[in-house]
Design brief:
By secondary structure, the protein is of the alpha/beta class. It is built from 13 helices and nine strands. It has a six-stranded parallel β-sheet with strand order 3-2-1-4-5-6, sandwiched between helices. A three-stranded antiparallel β-sheet has the order 7-9-8.
Length: about 290
């Protein structure tokens, strides 16, 4: 089996700002171990880079940990009175150079939710590469999620947020500890979209999850309140799923109802848009300050 090669690029200041808001009581809210482990699950990590102004104390405290995890820490001093640096530009340049010079890199893991990276995400995918975005739901907009191969919420890697008002909390079902969580509206819509776009009436359960992620890169059964993907699929039996059977190899096969028999609900996205804008405002209000200024 061929092993994928991975490059991980972290807009570190962006991630720390978001993590400080999500976990305000933690001295170092951004834990690197789970982030690196997730990237390693995609293949062999060949490139590790983190971008920030390391003179800022809130960021400098992470340098030793980043070095221990094999990251090259790239220093970018502030270049404007608003405390901006060129992290996003430098990250884009480095990824583009990697696309040209290190063609063996198959998957790019980008740690940031900045919409400025959308052209980069599109360019990576145009080259036939995979691009995985990691970040917090409240600071990663839908356009970023829709332009990557996969979106992974840091809440899934670092733990539940301390603020009940965060979008991550609202996206997690109240019955997340139950193995029989009810099928939520968002999860059902994704399944309906797949059934109506598929020409097959059955599929291996393992392949179904990959296809749902192609439709919605941010799809995660855990965020929808299910302990496993199997539990998520089983919740639609008698509704969107006709039956689940096992082949000779013991692999579950999912059989769908006919697409013509499915009635889609009318959708109203106004509440989702309002929640996103509210959380985006919170994110912008929080800043990392440089004591040297």
């Amino acid at each position: 089996m061929n092993t994928c090669n991975v490059g991980i690029y972290l807009d570190f200041e962006n991630l720390v700002i978001s993590s400080k808001y999500v976990y305000p009581s933690r001295e170092r809210p951004l834990s690197l171990g789970p982030v690196v482990d997730f990237a390693a699950s995609k293949g062999d990590i060949c490139v590790r880079k983190a971008y920030a102004n390391w003179q800022i104390s809130q960021l400098k405290q992470y340098q030793k940990s980043l070095t221990a995890h094999g990251f090259e820490t790239i220093h970018l001093p502030n270049t404007s009175s608003q405390g901006k640096n060129g992290a996003d530009v430098k990250l884009v340049v480095d990824v583009m150079e990697c696309l040209e010079q290190l063609k063996h890199i198959d998957t790019f893991v980008i740690g940031s939710g900045d919409t400025d990276f959308i052209p980069l995400l599109q360019k990576i995918r145009q080259r036939g590469k995979k691009v995985v975005v990691i970040g917090f739901d409240h600071s990663v907009g839908p356009l970023v999620k829709n332009n990557c191969t996969e979106f992974k919420s840091l809440v899934e890697l670092l733990g539940q947020p301390e603020h009940d008002s965060l979008e991550e909390t609202e996206n997690v079902s109240d019955s997340s500890d139950s193995e029989d969580a009810p099928a939520d509206t968002h999860g059902r819509k994704i399944m309906i979209r797949y059934i109506k776009s598929s020409e097959e009436d059955s599929i291996l359960m393992g392949n179904l999850k990959m296809n749902l992620k192609r439709i919605d890169p941010s799809f995660s059964e855990k965020k929808l309140g299910y302990s496993s993907f199997k539990k998520y699929v089983e919740s639609f039996q008698g509704d969107l799923i006709e039956k689940i059977e096992y082949n000779d190899g013991g692999n579950p096969i999912v059989y769908f109802v006919k697409a013509t028999n499915i009635q889609s609900e009318a959708t109203d996205n106004s509440n989702e848009i309002e929640k996103y804008l509210k959380n985006l405002r919170y994110h912008r209000d929080f800043k990392i300050t440089n004591p040297a200024n």
